[in-house]
Amino acid sequence: MILTLVMAAVVAGSSDIDPTGGAFLSVDLDSLETAARDAYDASDWETAASAYVELLRHDTGNSTAIYNAACCFGLMGDAGMSAAYLRAAAAAGFDDAGFASEDPDFDPVREDASFSSVLDSLMAVSSEDRAAMEFMVEVPCLVPVRVLLPAGYTPGAAYPLVIGLHGYGGNAADFLGLYGRIESPGFVFAVPEAPYSISAGGDDAFSWSTWSGADTMSYAGSIELSSLLVRNTALEMQAAFAPSSTWLLGFSQGAALAFLAGFENADIVDGVIGFGGYVEDPGPFLSAPPSSRDLRVFVAHGTSDRIVEPDEGRRAFALFDSLGCDAVMAEFEGGHGIDVATLAEAIGWIQEQVLEMYGG
Predict the structure, then answer these.
(1) Pairwise CA distance, residues 87 & 81, whole Å
(2) What share of the chain is helix, strand, coil (3-state, %, to 5)?
(3) Which residues of the chain are modeled with pLDDT < 70?
């Protein structure tokens, strides 16, 4: 009886509901996020902030978008709004106070009392969390690897294998979407999920590294384990598909890992493509065995990248070039992302390398 009365009330009142009231359900959040990122890359902070605010009207729990809006307000010099959004980002799950404390986007408002008080409170909470003495313990685990095969795939035929490594805060499912941006991809695309879950609003978000305030070795150890994960992925995929060659394609943090894992596993990896990447420590590259220097490397970087400065990509290229690697540097107009035209150039580069190595 109660359910009947409720349904009757809904039907009776439906004539008062705006027929366009559900339009918000069809809002393209990805397009809003892209527009915000493009405006940010173009240094149009006001347009970027407006796009992020509009995005948040439809996704109020997206801590990454809230934090990015705080950055835009910081770059605009609006300390009050930057502080308010940074506080909201923390409430929504953003927990990397150390990153915020070093973020140059907040330099214009860093000394303002209203902003510094919020940042100080986040740092205090972060310190309290670290006081819990968290240690990292290594255990075996199974990591999913998503695989796409080229159209008309013929079992037994030898195709190139490309292993995709997504960026910090990304995930394998989204990175797999790169396949659809390539015209007639003629390779097997395998994308493993990074092993460490992080907070990024309502999205599944992962990192290739982790850290602990009490266990200072956890960061370096996690990077090495991720390099091992890349090796194991390559070996599993090689056993399953017998590819003609094996390549790593990474973005941002994934590019940094691709560079390192490529050098550490040059016995089973033919080359690396890195977009928006960097070399954190040249030591492992300089001490790598001479055979590692046969690695082929394609470095791509946006000239307007504010997340990983273009000079980071240039330094990576200079390192590989100095080591005698067959290295290529491709710069494109744009920010921190994977440019479609440059991606096509990189895939064409793989095809050229395969022809050179194996005659097809």
Answers:
(1) 10
(2) 50, 15, 35
(3) 1-27, 126-134, 199-203, 212-216, 359-360
Collapsing DSSP to helix, strand or coil, 81 comes out as helix
Q: Phi first, then psi: what are they for 147, rounded to 5°? A: -130, 135
pTM: 0.74
Q: Give the phi and the psi of residue 121 in degrees, each rounded to 5.
A: -70, -35
Verify that 81 and 44 share a domain, yes or no.
Answer: yes
DSSP at 184: S
Choose among 298, 303, 148, 285: nearest CA to 227. Answer: 285
pLDDT digits (tens, 9 = 90+) for 281-311: 999 999 988 888 899 999 999 999 989 999 9
* Residues 200, 92 contacting (CB under 8 angstroms): no
Sign of the Cα pseudo-torsion (8, 10, 15, 19, in order): negative
pLDDT digits (tens, 9 = 90+) for 334-344: 999 999 999 99
Residue 17 inside a domain? The answer is: no
Task: Tell me if residue 4 falls in helix, strand or coil.
Answer: helix
Q: What is the CATH number for 291?
A: 3.40.50.1820
